[in-house]
Amino acid sequence: MALPHIRSLLASCALSLAAGCAAQPQQPGSPDTGNGVYEARGNEPFWNFSMAAGTLALSTPDGPRLTRMITRTYTRGNTRHYEAPDLAVAITSTPCQDSMSGQMFTQSVRITTKEQTLNGCGGNSVPPAQLNATRWIATQLDGHTLHNGNILPDTHDSATDENPNPAADMFTPTLDINDSGKVSGSDGCNRYAGGLVFGPDGKVSLAPQAGMSTLMACPGAHGHVSTLFLGLLHTVQSWSMEEGTLVLHTQDGKTMRLHQTF
């Protein structure tokens, strides 16, 4: 009579253990692989790394792509380690700044092969809290992608066309934000300065003094872009970041998107 009771008790314990394992939080340093693929990158030399389905893959400019199956994983402190016979990856939950773009990421990554050790960043990108001392170039105005850097596309244009006039890139609208948050730049034809102050955490306010601009004539496409850019810029009331792109939001719900140049 005691045997069925013991079996029932053992089964109950097994279920409890399984539930406990399923409820365990992510181990320290474990990468966020919500989409099934973890990615990291670094510079000097440039390299890209991915991890998915138990496989490590490393690409560098001086050799073929290295792909290895994971043979061992363990956690030490706040670092998660993944190892293969000739490839080791250490992912640490400490902030990391990309040495080229300046973009911040949630994790630091160290990759060791037989030939070298590579350091870079992985995890989620961290949007900046402020934009002081940065420069941006416009890529989209009110939903219109800038073609060849400065011309709005029409039914005959394609964003993939080669630039017939390389000098036209000089007229791409820009936004320079200085150390105190004040703005200047090019509207695609004329230089402008002042009018707005970019504050922290998405705030934008009007500058105490009105903005000023040069008065050069802007015919054709340059004039079209200039008018649209300034019309949007003068009504900006907040900013946000979307995957490395600066999005400016106007009072009437329109947007301008810009790419960082430094």
Furnish the topology, listing elements before pairings.
Layout: H1 2-22, E1 38-42, E2 47-52, E3 55-59, E4 66-69, E5 72-76, E6 79-84, E7 87-92, E8 96-97, E9 104-113, E10 117-126, E11 134-141, E12 144-145, E13 174-177, E14 182-186, E15 191-198, E16 204-206, E17 212-213, H2 220-233, E18 236-242, E19 245-250, E20 255-260
Antiparallel strand pairs: 1-2, 1-10, 2-3, 3-4, 5-6, 6-7, 7-9, 8-9, 9-10, 11-12, 11-13, 11-20, 13-14, 14-15, 15-16, 15-17, 18-19, 19-20
Notable characteristics:
2 helices; Lipocalin; 2 domains; mainly beta; elongated; 13% helix; 42% strand; disordered N terminus; 262 residues; ten-stranded antiparallel β-sheet
Task: Tell me what you see in this structure.
This protein is mainly beta and 262 residues long. It folds into 2 domains: 38-126, no CATH class; 134-260, Beta Barrel (Lipocalin). Helices cover 13% and strands 42% of the residues. The protein has helices spanning 2-22, 220-233; strands at residues 38-42, 47-52, 55-59, 66-69, 72-76, 79-84, 87-92, 96-97, 104-113, 117-126, 134-141, 144-145, 174-177, 182-186, 191-198, 204-206, 212-213, 236-242, 245-250, 255-260. Strands 1, 2, 3, 4, 5, 6, 7, 8, 9 and 10 form a 10-stranded antiparallel sheet that branches. The longest helix is centred in the N-terminal third of the chain and has 21 residues, at 2-22. The protein is elongated and about 65 Å long. Mean pLDDT is 81; it is low at 1-29 and 154-170.
